[in-house]
Amino acid sequence: MCGIVGYVGPQRAQDVVIDGLRRLEYRGYDSAGVAVVHQGELAVAKRSGKLANLEKELADHPLPPAHTGIGHTRWATHGPPNDANAHPHTGGARRVALVHNGIIENFRELRARIEADDHAFLSETDTEIAAHLVELQVQSGVDLPVAMQRVCQQLDGAFTLVAVDAEDPDRVVAARRNSPLVVGLGDGENFLGSDVAAFIEHTREALELGQDQIVTITRDDVTVTDFWGRPVEAKRFHVDWDLSAAEKDGHDWFMRKEIFEQPRAVADSLIGRRTTAGLLALDEMRLADEEIRDLDKIIIIACGTSFYAGMVAKYAIEHWTRTPVEVELASEFRYRDPIVDQTTLVVAISQSGETADTLQAIRHAKSQRARVLAICNTNGSSIPRESDAVIYTHAGPEIGVASTKGFLTQLVACYLLALYVAQVKGTRYGDEIDEIMVQLEAMPDHIATVLEQAESVYELARAHVGTRSVLFLGRHAGYPVALEGALKLKELAYLHAEGFAAGELKHGPIALIEDGLPVLCVVPPRGRDQLHGKMISGIQEVRARGALTICLAEEGDRKIEPYADHLIRLPQVPVLLQPLVAIVPLQLFACELATALGHDVDQPRNLAKSVTVE
Ligand code: M6R
């Protein structure tokens, strides 16, 4: 939610900042802006709409050739997405420019306080007050880092702030509370970004910042303190992917590229998980065997697609470990007084590692003495930092707003966690775990086989351009797949799409069925006879009422043929692993239908990639 960039170094700041914003645009695209410091003055350009609008403006009216700059791409919270509300904001004297990600909750009180002193505000944002306050501080004679400390002490809420002072041209100062910020360490230049994509083109060395910290960058130095000016040691890390991972690589959309990367992402997420003796070993799993054996309940918390990964995990963990699992939306968790104690393991799933709802839920769980394990794709992000243990997925950067490879790799991490708990608790024999690992290790090839059918799925999608509504049905582990398929279609094609547990249909939703309504059905493998038979009955029922059925069923499943208007074949895999292959055609379907409708697949309306406000 909002992308932030800062730069000091020998390069032209405008170019470095705009390149960084381009890579962060997935975080918000309501407006974009840049400010540079040149010869004791600020130069600011900002435009509503996508970054392209700002780039056009800068092509006609470039900013001066400065070497210090900040930039912002916005997901609007306070005030509509117009030019006035675009960041950077400046103080009244235009000495300080500042960008912000998050929400300053007490901005009204603070604003009222200085409005009384004749301070005019030009925007409706909660951000502008911070620019005024920092400017008042530097005008009083303190330097920018101290000004930032003093202002942060007054702010409530979540914020990353990045500021420059026209009279202090060679440094950028940033503050972080509950919103993401990382530092890129260059040679004679340094960078700030909401995530490493902002500077990956220039450096793969980075610093992770903690809560309530202030960082000051100059060309040759990076200083980190807390909000009270006390020095802090920041953790350095190396980014294990490069620029090519953040490029479209010949695809029309990042999302399509990321769908096709899934065999590789799943394989990478499985690498190095077994010892030479064949035992599962999860490196970053900092929970002692004792703690795992003592667990009597697991609660999974997550949002959106990650929540659906958690729903699949419940089937696997309960089946393999006989440990009860609850799956809860992170945004609901702490508001219902959940029963959590030191024998509960809370598993927080998040691709970005920055989702505010999930982060708050983790804090609540920890306050109740639960142990927290994060499943996360983003090194240096807040959720793994605040958790007791972590399993990193190895999807590489996911830039399309709609999660795809993030989901598949989360599933892999959940399976690994389930098997690890089974190994430690002894609820499965070693050879059973081995067999499942072998099946998992075969999944990249199976996913690749599904991707070979992309053209026929695209054709089907294009044939549905006039459709207003689509239903998705599944059972067992196929139910979360149905929900995820519907979410993909909602967020990309802006269509009414709903996922149902097939058995639930006759309790109400079947009333929605009308002539020609497309219903995508995730058919369980035949190995689970009862499940398979019941699913076929459900499909018959909707078809009898005029639905057009598009069935995803395993190779060799002949029983489905009479009830499928269209058939997409899936490889034969065990029911618990089927989500890894079944979701792929649904991703392709949503991507292609949205493309055919003329939508921006990577940047769907009203959304942002990581939701850093509650
Ligand atoms: O980064 P997270 O996994 O915590 O994000 C959770 C959701 O915001 C995310 O999955 C969202 O639903 C995606 N747009 C789904 O495609």
Automatic annotation (TrEMBL):
InterPro entries: GATase_2_dom, GFAT, GFAT_N, GlmS/AgaS_SIS, GlmS/FrlB_SIS, Ntn_hydrolases_N, SIS_dom, SIS_dom_sf. Residues 288-427, 456-604 form the SIS domain. CDD domains: GFAT (cd00714), SIS_GlmS_GlmD_1 (cd05008), SIS_GlmS_GlmD_2 (cd05009). PROSITE patterns: GATASE_TYPE_2, SIS. The keyword Cytoplasm applies. Keywords: Aminotransferase, Cytoplasm, Glutamine amidotransferase, Repeat, Transferase. Its EC number is 2.6.1.16. SUPFAM superfamilies: N-terminal nucleophile aminohydrolases (Ntn hydrolases), SIS domain. It comes from the Bacteria. Its main location: cytoplasm. The keyword DNA-binding does not apply. GO terms for cellular component: cytosol. It is found in: Cytoplasm. GO terms for molecular function: carbohydrate derivative binding; glutamine-fructose-6-phosphate transaminase (isomerizing) activity. The active site is at C2 (nucleophile), K609 (for fru-6p isomerization activity). One of its GO terms (biological process) is protein N-linked glycosylation. Pfam families: GATase_6, SIS. It catalyses: D-fructose 6-phosphate + L-glutamine = D-glucosamine 6-phosphate + L-glutamate. Catalyzes the first step in hexosamine metabolism, converting fructose-6P into glucosamine-6P using glutamine as a nitrogen source. HAMAP family: GlmS. This is Glutamine--fructose-6-phosphate aminotransferase [isomerizing]. It comes from Nocardioides immobilis.
